[in-house]
Amino acid sequence: MKKLLIVESPGKIKTITKFLNNEFRVMSTVGHIKDLPSKGLGITMDASGIHLEYETIKDKDKVISDIVKAAKTSDEVYLAPDPDREGEIIAWHVEQEINKILPQDRIHRITFNEITKSAITEAIKHPSVVDMPKVFAQQARRVLDRWVGYEVSPILWRKLAKGLSAGRVQSVALKIICQREKEVRAFKTEEYWSIEGAFAHGKSIFNAMLTHIGKKPADLKNEEETKLVVAELKNKNYVIESIVDKERIKNPVAPFITSSLQQAAANKLGFAVKRTMTIAQSMYEGVPLEDPKSPTALITYMRTDSTRLSQTAIDGAREFILSEWGKTYLPSKPNTYGKKEGAQDAHEAIRPIEMSLKPEDIKPYVSAEIYKLYQLIWSRAVASQMKPAIYAQRQVVIQADKYTFKVTGSTLTFDGFLKAYQTEEEDDDKVVKLPNGLKEQDAVSLEKIDPKQHFTQPPAKFSEASLVKELEKQGIGRPSTYATIISTIQARKYVELDKKRFVPTDLGMKVTEMLDENLPKIMNLKFTAHMEEDLDKIAGGQIERDTLLNEFWQSFSVDLEKFKGQTGGALGKKTLEATELDCPTCKEKKLVVRLGKNGSFLGCPGYPKCTFTSKFERQDDGSIVLLEETDLPTLLDEACSKCSNPMRLMKGRFGEFVSCSGYPECKNIKQNVASFACPLCQGTVAERKWRGGTLWGCQSYPKCKFSIFSDIDQHPCPKCKKSLYMIKKTDRSGKTNLICPEDGCKHVVSQQEELHA
289, 406, 442, 647: most buried by Cβ count inside 10 Å? Predict the structure, then answer.
């Protein structure tokens, strides 16, 4: 009996094949096989409903043909793409193709959360059918995203620049970054002071902070106030008013879900979100360990928002804890974690396949990245089934008249789950140790007083980890989409990373402003989060796909038509922002921020009458500063050969060049012309700049294709006399040599030598 099992990723084939007998053949779809058309919307609406037009993805014809051919000779076909909405629609598309040659009762849908023999065998024993509500949920998301992308992006092209894009979720994520940037720019720094005292008790010294003056918090605004308080504090007698001891219990953290793994990998390992998901995917599909020909799956499915562990995983973790650290670390019953609001519980948390497989066991066989991420996942899963950590906490209050100092010391008395996993908070904690023998009403002396000036800080700009946390908090997107969202807004140059923090570009701010003003509903965070909930309800069979889509289109289409009909705005196309800076050339206009091929720049709105442009820097508060005059075009004492206007020295993307100041009426650019004629056609050879450096080429191009892709010295070779020029080559040490280009010569002369004597 022949059986065919079809998976989504080719990386799983070897791992799964070793668990199945010879009856089975395992094939892969290599991702999606069909999608909405690459050209055209592919969505139609009529009285009977909303219809989707699918087409075969480029280069997938052979994949489909091979699968259908294998299915023809199979008695049973098992569809086993990933256990999520994307996997479900892949299974549905494959089923449609195989249905043409096989009856429905011979086609089965199976899912498994881990690639192990027991999981796959169990899935085959309990086959199901394609989950159509899950397919409808994927279709609804795809239609919503396509409507926004295909309908809004062309408007942005018309109003700002070609190549821009809008996305139902990506635009809201960009808005979150832009809102934070506005908060940072609007933030007004305020001064405040703190006072720390060093107190002696016997031979011991410990520090405490001034917290209250009378019954009010010690709110010191400036140096003058602080000096008055310090002067008074120096003459006081201090006594320990109270000592409060208590036990603090720190509970273990839940095993990873997708978003918490992305955040922890970013904070602890410095991994970008996309990198984390790529590494996790390979660990899920299987990596070679001792046997290079036999991959082993290391973790369960990595796209999940459930903290649930299977009983098998719990038993494995408890066995490991007992054997490794003993009963002291093992709770009497397994730890369970509450379901996150809106979470789907279809899959387990992210965990190791085998709890007994320690990170050290795989270290000799895998890359450093896989080892580090596996160690993170393994330690978190094991720690989730351990006892809490316990701290002894002591708060000491010191009093002198109306002045109150406080200090809290904390001592770890039982490490519990921290034996396996250090939380991010634990990594940052500063341990405060208090001396032994402190008693209430004991006198202490002020040995040193340390006033410090501080300034309030603006809210932190988003890192990848904190952006993921915010998206999750707001209910924007799903953990499986975070990596794509982050990659897209960077690829579109809407944001840049500065010291691992997201900063919106001027283009990103303008796009957000334009969409927020004209399409307020799709840019509303709560609306977008509510849409995610509705997509989940479609997957659960609670809402009809077309009901959701029709409701969305009715309001979206109205806003869209208004947006389409508007002109480019008061500032004009490709103008991002008006400034208060006077144009230094014409002195008549206020400069504006414009969009060019290489990003934003300052320009005079009086163009083409005034051609002033300049790069600029944006300060932390959002203000704009022109670069130094040395970066601006410099007029030369040389007349243009075509119109007699002064020539000017410009800085372009490939370096400096000389052009006419009468641009755009005169577009003359001065070229360096070689002292020798083209060796092929006797034409003129001139210098040009390109992204690779300097190019010398015949001006009769394309008729004559003579070119030299290097800088040259325009003197003949002193040895062979055949070549009319020498090639300049600079080695790693910075030394420049001149080399003859003639094949039979290749004479080398140091540029420092007297070549032209």
Answer: 647
Q: Is 54 a catalytic residue?
A: no
pTM of the model: 0.77
Active-site choice (78, 284, 301, 329): 301
Let me know if 747 is exposed, middle or buried by CB neighbors in 10 A (0-12, 13-18, 19+): middle
CA 13, CA 286: separation in Å to the nearest integer? 9
The kind and range of the H/E element at 233 are helix 223-233
Q: pLDDT digit string (tens) for 661-716?
A: 877 678 888 888 888 888 888 888 888 776 556 788 888 888 888 888 888 888 88
Judge: domain 258-383, CATH 1.10.290.10.
Answer: yes
> Are 42 and 541 a contacting pair, CB within 8 Å?
no
The average confidence (pLDDT) of the chain is 90
Domain 139-187+460-565, CATH: 1.10.460.10
Mention every residue, 6+ apart, whose C-beta is less than 8 A from residue 468: 259, 262, 263, 266, 273, 479, 482
Q: Which two tokens stand for residue 198?
A: 């060093």
What is the rounded CA–CA span in Å between residue 160 and residue 513?
Answer: 12
| Ordered DSSP codes for 163-196 | T----TTHHHHHHHHHHHHHHHHH----EEEEEE
Judge contact between 455 and 190, C-beta under 8 A.
yes
The domain defined by 3-130 folds into Rossmann fold (3.40.50)
**CB-CB contact of 445 with 200 (8 Å):** yes
